[in-house]
User: What shape does this take?
Amino acid sequence: MECTVLIMLWILRRVRLRAGFSSLADIVDRRGLVLSFRGILRAEANMSLLLEHIRKSYRQPEGGSLPVLGIERFEIRQGEQVVLLGASGGGKTTLLNIISGILTPDSGRVVIDNRDIAAMPEVVRDRYRASKVGIVFQTFNLLPAFSALENVMLGMVFSGRGVDRGFAKQLLERVGLGHRLNHSPKRLSVGEQQRVAVARALANKPVLLLADEPTANVDTKNQQLVLDLIRDTCRDHNVSLLMVTHSLEVAGTFQRVERLQDFNHPELCVKGQAI
Amino acid sequence: MNLLTIAWKSILQRRLASFLTALSIGLGVMLMVLVLVIFGAVDSAFTQRSVGYDLIVGPKGSDLQLVLSAVYRMQPPIENLPYLYLQQIRQDRRVVSAVPLAFGDVTEIGSFPIVGTTTEYFENEYMPGQSFRIRGTRINALFDSIIGSEVARENGWDVGSQFSIIHGGAESEDVHDEKFTVVAVLDTTGTANDRTVFLNLDGFYAIAGHEKPIDEVEKRLKDFYAADPDRLNQALTQLQDYRTRQAAKPADSQPSAVVTPAIVTYDSPDAMKEVTAILVRTRPETPFDAISLSAELQKGFQAMAVNPVRPIQRLMTGLLGNIQKALVVLTAIIILVSGVGIFVSIYNSMSDRRREIGIMRALGAGRHHVFGIVLAESALLCLGGATTGWLAGHGLAIASAPWVIRQTGLLINPWSMNTLEFVLFPVVAGMAVLVGFLPAMTAYRTNVADALSS
Assistant: This one.
């Protein structure tokens, strides 16, 4: 009996080291070992994001459900920059919410940095999101009660890694706001606010940055600046980027352009296709 | 940065509403602290700690009135006892000290009570472990006086000052002719002594009009010693001698004293003298002495001996205790209502903060994080308000202490802590959890995707 336990512990230790888990508890507390093992074994090397067999429907008030996402496979490699185009109401925001773990799919796997976040309990998923995924919102979503620096540090508080004030300052200096650290968002221009949002998204050194139309609220003059900033900082930090946009002009500057309708087939939800 | 600083920032964002709600808690706590400090001072002033005697002997009547008049100088005297009775008490082996007090008059300026006594009064401790400290000389001449610190401060008197007294109380306009001289000033004691003017007992007797007619004294002695014919006879003999001496004097002369204090002497017999009360100390090594002596004195004559604590305790626990309870309950209700105010303020702000909560959740905050932030806000408002109120309460007590002493003679210790104050903060913390729970649950249940798209 003791021998069996020792062998299991040795195997767990090997797996933990290979997958980069910080502790054995990290594996055990995520819906049991089986799912975690499955996630680990299927994960591909150098993959920041892998979506497999994603199905998502919304329940409608009048009854029945509205299928939104049916994605068989979608992936982003480490450091890759991808632009996602799609019509309004096509499920882009739902997709971003599923990738960031804000929503869970009805079924399927969402693997970020080799771990299936869809299989994680919510508490773990929140923390994982804080440490692995950066989000730049269309409306910046800076909190008005906090200064630029505090907005950047905010994400660090929730990641559980501790607050690195120095790194937060570095990020703001990197986006050209070293002289505006203690300014409240109200006193920053729109372009500056978006730069703070970019710095905040990178504060926890994520592996994946999600940008939801980050230039939509920025004037033409600042659009390219913001775009360059996001892309350059992602490149500098080897962060994968998934940017949602309506602008074909913006999309034209990316090597990889994906149209949601090309790989999203909501009808798969209705067919109840086996995963 | 941590959850507490995030909560603090949220409070600052709604600084006016937050300030007002915390203020309401603060005011409630301040009122409670003031009630406790004031009642603490009253309690401390009216308990055994303030009285350095075991028994107070006086004429039969209200025990509360006797204590209030003899110790706290707040009531007029009941009646008088024969001076001979003081000597009788002094002869008892259980008595260590018996100090006579004669009072009833007040100063012309300030209406401070006049007490005639002996030097023994100042030699005894005015409360256990506390002796009088006197600046000046002892009473030597008949019309010398020692004044309390408040009398000196309020009337601007010092050693060498002269003053007159009014017979019978402030409402009487009968000013005695005698001039009294201050020979010493007492240090502050925090007791009624601070507001008292002490005279030489013989000087008190020597004041014109204080000596009763011989016939009246005779009648009172007969009443008092009705059950003790031996002592009555001794007293009547003294009176008869005195009557003879008085008859030999010229008709227009003063009964026993003249107005020039330096040369005056008081030569009336003890039978002619009366005291208003007698402060008695029994042997400290036999605590039952006071009880047995009290029981004995209670049986005979027309006197009573009361424990200086019990009537006051009765008053404190009866009337004043209930007033204190009512005020504490009232302030507790104010605090509770303020807590409801905090609940309403935070709960109303939740709809405005839905998106803020959504953003925090998107940045990785767990449900427990946003729950904790809202709860921390409630705790900061409640405990911040309570702490401010507590400091303000004690601050106000410090600031008003000199005024209270001036007005009431009550010595306030602004930093005296009531047990209730130690309970107050845990109770406020509990209230913070209670009022913050529902808004915190609202934050906990916030749907992130909906909040972000709102």
